[in-house]
Write a structure and sequence with these properties.
It holds the Pfam family Iso_dh. The chain is an alpha/beta fold. The protein contains twelve helices and 14 strands. Bound molecules: 3-isopropylmalic acid and manganese (II) ion.
C-alpha cells in the first residue's frame, strides 16, 4: 500500500501530526518542526491487483498526482510473480514513476560508524564511505521502444529491448546530478558503457558539455564494468555517481551492500514539477513477510528524504535522521544489521524506538 499526502495549507503551524493523536503542550519552533501533514492511503502493487485487477489503479495515480509527496512501501510478492507483465506489481511501480514524471532517483549509500561491522567489506574499506547514486528513472532500456517478443530471420523466438536516450533526457538528469554533487563534495562520476553503446556515447558527450559550465565540479567517466569493480575495491573514491536507469538499478544495489544492509537505504525520486516519490530501495522481502523481522529504517529514512527533497523541510528531515542514528547508538538492531553485542529487535520495536527518540527531541527542539 502507498500513503500519499498533501501538505496542509497552513503548513507553518505548530501542530505536528506525524504522530497522529499526539498533543504537544509546548509550542515548538516552526523552523524546526512546524510541519503539519495529512495522510491518505491508496492501493498499488499486489494489494491493488487483488482488489481491482490492476497494479496501479487510476484513482491511485490521480491521488498521488494531486498530493505534495508520495511515500511508497516496497511492492511485489510470490503470489504475483508469474503474472503477465502488465499485471505484475513491478509494472505498477514503473507506471507510477512514469506517471509522476520522476526522472531523477537519488540513492544515498553512506556507511554509518555504528554499522561498519555489518558491512561485508573490511572495516578500512567501508569506513567513511558516503556515495550518492543519481539514477535516471524514466528512460533507457526500461521504457525504450521497440520492445517485445518476436522471431529472428532464422525463425527463432526472441525477446528484445531498446536502450535509448534523447538529449533532453540526458541533460535534465545531468543537471540534477551536477546540482547534487555541488552540494556534496563536488566530485561527479558519470558511469556508462561508451566503449560499446551509442546511447552511452551521447550520454558521455552531454554530461561532459554540461559539467564544463561548472568549474567547481570535478567530472570523471567510468565504464560500468569497471565501476562495479571499483565500488568494491575502493568505494571511498566516489562522491556522486550519475548513470542511466539500468546501470543505476544494479550499482545502487551493489553500493547498498557496502553500507551493511539494503534494509537501511532510502531513495528519493523527483521530477521537474509535481510531487516526488519516496521509497526504500529494497524490495518487499516476501521470504520474511509477516515475521516482524524486516528493517523499517529504510522506509523511515525515506520519509526523511521526503521532508528534505519533497517539501524542503530540512530541519524535520534532520530530526528523523538524528532519531535513527540515536536509536542505533542505543544498540537496537534488526537481524540484517545485527552484530554481537547489540540488541536484536523486530520491525515493530525498531519503529517504536525511533518514535520514542523523535518524541524525546521535543526538549531540545
Ligand atoms: C528498484 C527495483 C525496481 C527497478 C523494480 C521493482 C521494477 O529493482 O526500484 O530498484 O528495477 O527499478
Ligand atoms: Mn533495483
Amino acid at each position: 500500500p502507498m500513503a500519499s499526502f498533501r501538505c496542509s495549507a497552513s503548513a507553518r503551524s505548530y501542530n505536528i501530526t506525524l504522530l497522529p493523536g499526539k498533543q504537544y503542550d509546548e509550542p515548538l519552533s516552526p523552523s524546526t518542526t512546524g510541519v503539519e501533514l495529512r495522510f491518505q492511503e491508496k492501493l498499488m502493487g499486489g494489494s491493488a491487483l487483488d482488489a481491482t485487477g490492476v497494479p496501479l489503479p487510476e484513482e491511485t495515480l490521480a491521488a498521488a498526482r494531486d498530493s505534495d509527496a508520495v511515500l511508497l512501501g516496497a511492492i511485489g510478492g510470490y503470489k504475483w510473480d508469474n503474472n503477465e507483465k502488465h499485471l505484475k506489481p513491478e509494472t505498477g511501480l514503473l507506471q507510477l514513476r512514469a506517471g509522476l514524471g520522476v526522472f531523477a532517483n537519488l540513492r544515498p549509500a553512506a556507511v554509518l560508524p555504528q554499522l561498519v561491522d555489518a558491512s561485508t567489506l573490511k572495516r578500512e574499506v567501508a569506513e567513511g564511505v558516503d556515495i550518492m547514486v543519481v539514477r535516471e528513472l524514466t528512460g533507457g532500456i526500461y521504457f525504450g521502444k521497440p520492445r517485445g517478443f518476436g522471431t529472428n530471420d532464422k525463425g527463432e523466438d526472441t525477446g528484445f529491448n531498446t536502450e535509448i536516450y534523447s538529449v533532453p533526457e540526458i541533460d535534465r538528469i545531468a543537471r540534477v546530478a551536477i546540482e547534487v554533487a555541488r552540494k556534496r563534495r563536488g566530485k561527479l562520476c558519470s558511469v556508462d558503457k561508451a566503449n560499446v553503446l551509442e546511447a552511452s556515447m551521447l550520454w558521455r558527450k552531454r554530461v561532459t558539455a554540461l559539467a564544463s559550465e561548472f568549474p567547481d565540479i570535478e567530472l570523471s567517466h567510468m565504464y560500468v564494468d569497471n565501476a562495479a569493480m571499483q565500488l568494491i575495491r575502493n568505494p571511498k573514491q566516489f562522491d556522486t555517481i550519475v548513470t542511466n536507469n539500468i546501470f543505476g538499478d544494479i550499482l545502487s544495489d551493489e553500493a547498498s551492500m557496502i553500507t551493511g544492509s539494503i534494509g537501511m537505504l532510502p531513495s528519493a525520486s523527483v521530477g521537474e514539477s509535481g510531487p516526488g516519490l519516496f521509497e526504500p530501495i529494497h524490495g518487499s522481502a516476501p521470504d520474511i513477510a509477516g515475521q516482524d523481522k524486516a528493517n523499517p529504517l529504510a522506509t523511515i529514512l525515506s520519509a526523511a528524504m521526503l521532508l528534505r527533497y519533497g517539501l524542503g523541510e530540512e530541519n524535520a528531515a534532520k530530526r528523523i535522521e538524528a532519531a535513527v542514528i540515536e536509536t542505533l547508538n542505543h544498540g537496537f538492531r534488526t537481524g540484517d544489521i545485527y552484530s554481537p553485542g547489540t540488541t536484536l529487535v523486530g520491525c515493530k520495536r525498531m519503529g517504536e524506538e525511533v518514535l520514542k527518540t523523535v518524541e524525546s527531541q521535543k526538549a531540545v527542539a
